[in-house]
Specification:
With about 325 residues, the protein is of the alpha/beta class. The chain has eleven helices and eleven strands.
Length: about 325
């Protein structure tokens, strides 16, 4: 069995090569992303394996089918980059629904603590033998209200972490969990009461630009926004304006709406064309990591293991629990 592996990163290869060998799947690793121009690279393959910024639209799906590709295996949880409706009855689409929800929830808290305790600033200062504390005053998380949007696997773990810090947790979910002690409120109430807001819902038509200039008006002054979910939940230009107006106290972003052309690549020594991203990064109260929240050893192992078993199940015609149906 052969599988074309698009948007390959160095960290992907060891676990996929090992599990591929053990299960008789030959992965052909390509650095390029999958799109209409690169889809021909899947020729001769039974499956393609893609990540968050590959483009799987109707044209790509048609071409994959012409090439005889049977399985589209996402090695991630989110699938907003795939036209799932169009893929129905044409190609099997599988994903890795959970590889380590702990990795993402813990990264969200790492960003939050780094930001509010100014650790990123202190780190640079002390490396330069500057031991001054001026400008490093933070605030306690204990007793603060955190609003969690999306209470699925990651959101719930984040809630537990926050409770461990003695925070008051309120939450909004379109489909609230019935079996839980989570204090659900309407989205507008969450916006007006939260000192910190953390996003853990998928990107859909409904959640697109959940944070825009209108919703920013509803936020508490000084609110800290944490987004480890998908960039387009936030209108980045509106966020920038909110920060400049001192309405938003800080932003911690692991994802960015226009990340596809920038994230995962080394642009040091180059001039970044995206003015909004460059301006955000220049702000003292903004921390950006480049879609790194999932990146732990445990998660990488789970991603490879689940992806390989998804591909095998589909190619053998067996029921696959991780097949996406719309
Ligand atoms: P999940 O499917 O377990 O939970 C998502 C929750 O969002 C569900 O409770 C669902 O009811 C809720 N939801 C759906 N529509 C909503 C809406 N309109 N408003 C509010 N809530 C809504 O997903 P999981 O595993 O917790 O992942 C959450 C998101 O995290 C993923 O969609 C993905 O975008 C992102 N993610 C980011 C990673 C990173 O490395 N930065 C890695 C993995 C996931």
């Amino acid at each position: 069995m052969k599988a074309a592996f698009f948007d390959t990163k160095q960290y992907d290869m060891p676990s996929f090569e090992k599990l591929g060998k053990e299960n008789n799947i030959k992965f052909k690793f390509y650095e390029t992303k999958l799109n209409e121009d690169t889809v021909a690279l899947a020729k001769g393959c039974d499956a393609v394996c893609v990540f968050v910024n590959d483009t799987v639209n109707a044209a790509v799906i048609d071409r994959l089918c012409e090439l005889g590709v049977k399985v589209l295996a996402l090695r991630c949880a989110g699938y907003n980059n795939v036209d799932i409706k169009y893929a129905k009855d044409k190609i099997k689409v599988v994903s890795v629904p959970a590889y380590s929800p702990y990795a993402v929830a813990e990264h969200a808290m790492a960003l939050l603590l780094t930001s509010i305790r100014r650790v990123h600033k202190a780190f640079i200062r002390t490396r330069d033998h500057n031991f001054s504390l001026n400008g490093l005053t933070g605030f306690d998380l204990h007793g603060k209200t955190v609003g969690v949007v999306g209470t699925g696997k990651i959101g719930r773990i984040f809630i537990n972490i926050c409770r461990g810090f003695g925070m008051n947790v309120i939450a909004y979910d379109k489909f609230p969990a019935k079996d839980s002690d989570i204090d659900y409120v309407e989205l507008d109430e969450l916006f007006s009461r939260s000192d910190i807001i953390s996003f853990h819902c998928p990107l859909t038509e409904e959640t697109y630009h959940m944070i825009d200039s209108k919703s920013i008006d509803k936020l508490k002054k000084g609110v800290v926004i944490v987004n480890t979910s998908r960039g387009a939940l936030i209108d980045a230009e509106a966020l920038l304006e909110g920060i400049k107006a001192r309405k938003i106290g800080a932003a911690c972003l692991d994802v960015y709406e226009e990340e596809a052309d920038v994230f995962f690549q080394d642009f040091s020594g180059h001039i970044i064309a995206d003015d909004t991203l460059a301006r955000l990064i220049s702000m003292p109260n903004v921390i950006v990591t480049s879609h790194q929240a999932f990146l732990t050893e445990e998660a990488l192992h789970n991603i490879a293991e689940t992806t390989v078993s998804n591909i095998l199940a589909c190619l053998k015609g067996e029921e696959c629990p991780n097949e996406l149906h719309i």
